[in-house]
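Today's session is about reading a structure prediction critically. Students often jump straight to the picture, but the first step is always the sequence itself: look for stretches that repeat, for charged clusters, for runs of hydrophobic residues. Only then move on to the predicted structure, which in these notes is written as discrete structure tokens rather than atom positions. Here is the chain we will use throughout the hour.
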Amino acid sequence: MRQLLLKTQIVDVTLRDGGYRNNFAFSPEYAVEHVQRLYEAGVDYVEVGYRNGSVLPIENIGMTGLCTAQYLALLHEAAPHLKLVVIAHVKNIKASDVRELADCGVNLLRLCVNSNLDETLSMAEVAKSCGMNVSLNIVRVSSIGTEQLEQMVSKIEAHKKLLDVVYLADSNGNLNPAHLARLMATVRNGTTLRIGYHAHDNIGLAMANTITAIRQGATYVDASLLGMGKGIGNLRLEQWIAYCRSEGFEKYSLESVLRAIKRLRSDPMFVQEDHEYEVDMLCGSLNLPFTERKGVVERLSTQSAKHVEEASAPALSFSGYGAPSLVGRLGS
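Below is the predicted structure for this chain, in token form.
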């Protein structure tokens, strides 16, 4: 395993995925300290937020949900040698946004895709022309069938000059190692691009899945401090580094990461509540996206969790962006 780990790179996603916990309202002071501490720890990339918001509008969205030029310049100045990452949904950005990101020192632009591949590839071309590295992140991958994934990967491979990495994002937290291994095989057999994996821990398999992804050829791994992220959260960065050390891979400083955790815990905008733990676990089990949580909460307030689960049906409808809808899953 150590030989495989030697090929991997870590992308910290605390400021972006953790933003779902605090409305992306990290302070500039915290963000500066965060990137500096993770650079000291040897973390390869730090994803610092969304450009112009998430997939759905968020009222009063904070700094790490917008990634303005001023914010990016602040981080680049604070950690000039760190590889900064920004993620975006193509419906939220224009070519001018991409050019500004490049001017602000962003090294890697990650573009979310599920069913809007042509538009996303066009934006990837703009990013490449600006000298940025580009990752195409296939989000909610657990909701994509094998045939559709094969078609997507075939098209991605035909445009591989526009891309550096293709990511499988378990946005719903639904994957298990066997399912992930099949998805990885489909991608690995269809493209020569590097592969990354983004885990969510809804059913407690973030670590197991990430190890599986590495064994199946992934060379990029996403994680966050304390797992702070959407729903139950992500792979815990500190646990992943501890695991790497247990395998004899000591590139990263666990001590520096633990100091970063102490700083995060002390920050007023740190939120790691689990009062809706059962909702997020049920969403993962039923392969429902975060955007459907409100419906699950409403169902659980009037029905038992067992009744909600038994009400699910094999047939899925889709409510935009490839997301399985509650229609037919939790009853009418």
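Discussion point for the tutorial: Residues 279 and 297 are 6 Å apart (CA to CA).
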